[in-house]
Amino acid sequence: MTDTTLKDGSKLGSGVRRRISLPAIPLSVALAIAWIIAMLVVAALAEKIAPYGYTQLDLRNRLSAPGNVAHWLGTDELGRDVLSRLLVSIRISLLIAFGATAISAVVGTTLGFLAAHFRGLVEQLVLMLTDFQASMPFLIMALAVLAFFGNSLPLLIGLMGLFGWERYARIARGLAISANAQGYAAAVRQLGARPSRIYLRHILPNIASTLIVSTTLVFPEVILMESGLSFLGLGVQPPMTSLGNMVGYGREYLTRAPWIMLAPATTIVVTTLAVSVIGDWLRDKLDPTLQ
Amino acid sequence: MGRYFAIRIGRAALTIVLVVTFAFVVLRLSGDPALMILGPEAPPEVLAAFRKAWGLDDPIWFQYLDYFGAIAKGELGRSMRDGRPAIELVLERIPATLALTVPAFLLKVALGIPAGIYAALHRGSAIDRAVMMTAVAGFTVPSFVLALLLVLVFAVQLGWLPSGGQDSWRHAILPIATLSLGGAAVLARFTRSAMLEVLGQPYIRTASAKGVPWRMVVTSHALPNAAIPTVTILGFMVGTLIAGAVVVESVFAWPGVGRLLVVAVANRDLAVVQCILLLVALTMVTSNLIVDFLYGFLDPRLRAKGAHA
Amino acid sequence: MSAPLVEVSAISRSYSMRSGMFGRATAVHAVDGVSLSIPKGETLGLVGESGSGKSTTGRIVLGLEPPDRGDVRFDGKPMAALGTQAWRTQRARMQMIFQDPLGALDRRLPVASQIREPLDIHGIGTVAEREDRVRELLRAVELTPAHGARYPGALSGGQRQRIVLARALATKPDFLVCDEPVSALDVSIQAQVVNLLCDLQARLSLTLLFISHDLRVIRQISTIVAVMYLGRIVEIGSADDLFARPEHPYTQALVSASPAPGRRSAGRIVLSGDPPNPAARPNGCAFHPRCPRALARCASEVPVLSAIGDGRQVACHLVTGPHVQTRDAA
């Protein structure tokens, strides 16, 4: 889908068809893409490329500084290899971020389409929920849910999946309504197509570029939200580890071993930065109307 | 205009109803509310009395209405840890939170808005680029990382400031800096784009083409119009003052509402969590209402339309 | 004339329109008591200015929106309710050609797959048969299979409209509604597309409702012509007869403004007054403020559409009232 989007990127309703020449990628975007690919490779192969098990203790080498041959990024208070823990943390954090972004995109787009299709009461209900979601700080809602339900990885992914759905819902609703009012969707409807065909085969591919741009806005925020919760000790629980979780535990050793906290913190910052850079670039290319 | 405000107030009330409903649903889904609120050590006769008092044997919609009634009367349960009313615990933490968030908010406005306006008026200059880069950093550097970096530099390396606690005004500097820096960058970026949007409008070009001095164009045409979207985001920032304090208060061991929330969540002290949830909702809704009212007065189009209605 | 395929009786449709966010809602009568009957294999040309309700009439006739009052019968049976399975099945028998072919096509799909889409939707034929049918349809609209592989953006306006036509014909429908099908095209292309429509109509014995503001195009394709003004039909009759002897003053003005071979362009009637506004329809005959020959009663009494012989019907006090003999005045 990304492929057709790039080849055929045209804005809904504007009469102009824009083609994107793929080679003209700015250096910053190329670096950002390279970083994200590296992160994906790390996430996929974390256990294979990690020099040590992420819970493996080395009590003789506790809090050893980065740069030594045995432990490139040093060790933590229990002598666990920071690099190995970092690789596994990247996997967990990306798993949560991707899972959550996928859930929120699917939930939001579906609700937006339902609102556009049924209008009336359904639409009012969806709009009320999006208003509610947008007006309550998500961190507080997430903390409340965690307090009531306790914690587990599936719950955490599901909870994070409730983040940002309202943006997809608004976009999908708005674009579907305008597509239904005039143009290709109306044309296909009068051919006798069922709603599922109209929405999935026609409207969805046409608004995909806008939805993808929204994804690049939601994804880094999910990473920040999850790492924030984990940092507070309320997200990913030990012995499992995530980027925020590592920063949280590293803060205890800020004075003696700042590297424990700096390695995952840098990873968080660079990853969110990379996604934002790619998102800005895609937005300029695909959809200049989005803010 | 009356209709406009009626709709806003209705919406605000609806948000509160939704938050209470959210708390009710989550509370019911998570287990026996009597046990949850009173704790597992509560004697059986107390549990029975609680169930009777809260009408837990009644049909669910009746309980739902009852729950509203209880909250309206301020009966928000007792803390599991020390048995004090949750609302008391929360209220006594509010001054500490305000001591951080109010100065941080003022600092955000004092730094962010002038920087944004300057950057917009000097588009492409070194300061503009610096503002934009800082804004990106403000978005991508999470507050807990910023907080730890500030501690690392100013407390650990330089030893100028304490790294945590609430003993003197010097303890408040790093938390306030953490809270305001990121927000100021975001606000600067927002103000800049609002200004640029206004400066691109035909009426600005018309005004400057008519020979109105540029300074006048900016102060009497551009700024008032750019103020409208900026007020909206400021209102949103006021609403998130408590939420924003959660992380910072935890890092700096600052005894405010945010830290109370984190501790309450960790201990599953549900009465306290529920109380803070409602407090945040009330803050959000109130600040949104204030923004809507301001908006109504700031936006002449709304005023004009209201006059006809 | 054979039995009617489409029978429209006294349909009305109004919309509520708000002025601004806080304004009072006013009802706009887009269509008001329109009756039509289209015999099998004939083409009815529906002509009128913008705002006359001709497009709304087309959409109601096709079942794309329900009338507030009145009903539409297709092939002797009432139209299925909008959005039901029966309605969707019925779409295979009736199709629409849109004014804006680029808007009517999905820009992200090659046009061949869009021509095939009705066959996929209605489950007609095997995959191989559908592919054959697409090639056949492309030939029928005078395009080549190579065009089928392109995207709508890579085709010209005339080619796109041919694609829309091919898609509409895929399920071998009996009835087509063409809503200003050529007005977005260059004049030189217009003639080609209209000729193609005429050929296909004859070859496939289609029944057409052809909506246009352009009298030249209507004249070329229609066998019956209906003239609409502010939601009502003011005159209807066989095409040759109506163009030769327009009865209603509005029709006379339209015909005089449209040059035709073998007729002197002198004596053109220029209409004065405001163009029609559906939100503020004048009392009585809606045309009276612009009518060069309006009588006092035209401002108060609504003229009824009445037969005057030869299948002609006119809604005008001058024609149906005591002054029937005024036709020579034009």
Automatic annotation (TrEMBL), chain A:
Pfam families: BPD_transp_1 (PF00528). InterPro entries: BP-dependent_transpt_permease, MetI-like, MetI-like_sf. Residues 90-279 form the ABC transmembrane type-1 domain. It is found in: Cell membrane. It is a multi-pass membrane protein. Its main location: membrane. The chain crosses the membrane at residues 20-46, 94-118, 138-163, 203-224, 259-282. Keywords: Cell membrane, Membrane, Transmembrane, Transmembrane helix, Transport. The keyword Translocase does not apply. Gene3D superfamilies: MetI-like (1.10.3720.10). The keyword Glycosyltransferase does not apply. CDD domains: TM_PBP2 (cd06261). Belongs to the binding-protein-dependent transport system permease family. This is ABC transporter permease.
TrEMBL record, chain B:
The chain crosses the membrane at residues 12-31, 98-121, 133-160, 172-190, 226-251, 271-295. It comes from the Bacteria. Keywords: Cell membrane, Membrane, Transmembrane, Transmembrane helix, Transport. SUPFAM superfamilies: MetI-like. The keyword Transport applies. It is found in: Cell membrane. Pfam families: BPD_transp_1 (PF00528), BPD_transp_1_N (PF19300). InterPro entries: BPD_transp_1_N, MetI-like, MetI-like_sf. Residues 94-295 form the ABC transmembrane type-1 domain. It is a multi-pass membrane protein. Belongs to the binding-protein-dependent transport system permease family. This is ABC transporter permease. It comes from Bradyrhizobium campsiandrae.
Automatic annotation (TrEMBL), chain C:
InterPro entries: AAA+_ATPase, ABC_transp_ATP-bind, ABC_transporter-like_ATP-bd, ABC_transporter-like_CS, Oligopep_ABC_C, P-loop_NTPase. NCBIfam families: oligo_HPY (TIGR01727). Residues 256-276 are annotated as: Disordered. Belongs to the ABC transporter superfamily. It is a peripheral membrane protein. This is ABC transporter ATP-binding protein. It comes from the Bacteria. Residues 6-255 form the ABC transporter domain. Pfam families: ABC_tran, oligo_HPY. Keywords: ATP-binding, Nucleotide-binding, Transport. Involved in beta-(1-->2)glucan export. Transmembrane domains (TMD) form a pore in the inner membrane and the ATP-binding domain (NBD) is responsible for energy generation. It comes from Bradyrhizobium campsiandrae. GO terms for molecular function: ATP binding. Its main location: membrane. It is found in: Cell inner membrane.
